[in-house]
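COMPLEX REQUEST
Ligand: magnesium ion
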Amino acid sequence: MAEAMAETKTKAQEGAQRNGTDVTAERMERFSKDELRGFLRDMLLFRRFEEKAEEAYAIGKIGGFCHLHIGQEAVALGLIGPLREDDYVISAYREHTQALAKGLEAGPVMAELYGRDGGVSRGKGGSMHLFDAERRFMGGHGIVGGQTALAAGLGWSIRYREGDQVCVCFLGDAAVNQGAFHESMNMAAIWKLPVIFVVENNAYGMGTAFERVSAVPVVERGEGYGIPTHAINGQDILETWSFMEELAEEVRSGAGPQYVDARTYRFKGHSMSDPVSGTYRSKEEVSEKKEREDPITVLRDHLFEADLLSQEELEEMDAEVRAVVDEAAEFADDSPFPADEELYTHVYSELNEHGRLFLDGRDR
Ligand SMILES: Cc1ncc(C[n+]2csc(CCOP(=O)(O)OP(=O)(O)O)c2C)c(N)n1
Ligand SMILES: [Mg+2]
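STATUS: Structure written out below.
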């Protein structure tokens, strides 16, 4: 354990030991003005997209489960943006903005939330099951921790084909208590699979604080498997982006699986039917986080301070992304519901003459 502990790179701690302003200036220099403004634009797009989904849910255009990612945008953009098109991303159910970050278009993503035929999963998956094999966005999964085993499978397929892609697997902090997670981490370690397990550590699983369900912090859960572990500030896009740029290259060159504790915070309730705060966290905690750790205002302020953005330009940027989101909602509204016959398609890959499907070659 002591050896594995030594490998833990706690970037947030490293950063805290140095002068915060210097670290930010140094990180800003890695990016061009256009790149920095692009980060702000994309995170604003994610935020406006989620706000539109919230509004559409309230008026009954979206039904079922719907989990918003508001507050966690710098994790999605920074840990997916630097990836290649042929890299894989797989996630849980809080995945709308991750899908957008992987290049899925806003219109078909919104249409999926609306349950329409023009949706990325043809309206049959809904909010929790966004999927696009071509763009290598492998879902959207509702079973907590279930995607970790699929990520190991994706990692295995990359190795088997001798590819140099990576697979980034997002999971929530509550998922580290699931059996599938532990089996997947162990197999990934033994087989040196190119999988980066990212825990979006927002400190809560529904209404349960992580410290109530674990004797050790999230970051220590990777160490028992001999997997290098990292802790990052998930509210700072400069940190998340630079971090993944380096880590993905290391994994491509054979560094094997990685475990990342991305510290973040959910600004909304667990899902649309849950309150923002209540018995499990105080109103004050939420407002303090929003005030100090909103990834969008953090970057906006850096840009203002460095004279890389004016208030007017910010407003133009916001108007542009709002137009993209409005268009996405119109696309969803205009798309038909799946036809009744679609109830019977995409359920099984193919039924035999007896109306059954076996995956082991039997036909009866
Ligand atoms: C196997 C399983 N158990 C329970 C649930 C019910 N459930 C849905 S979300 C959730 C909490 C997950 O929290 P976390 O992994 O921290 O992700 P977050 O919602 O914070 O993004 C639970 C218990 C489920 N979907 N799957
Ligand atoms: Mg959580």
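REMARKS: The chain has one domain: 2-335. Residues 172-174, 202, 204-205 surround magnesium ion (ligand 2) (CB under 6 Å).
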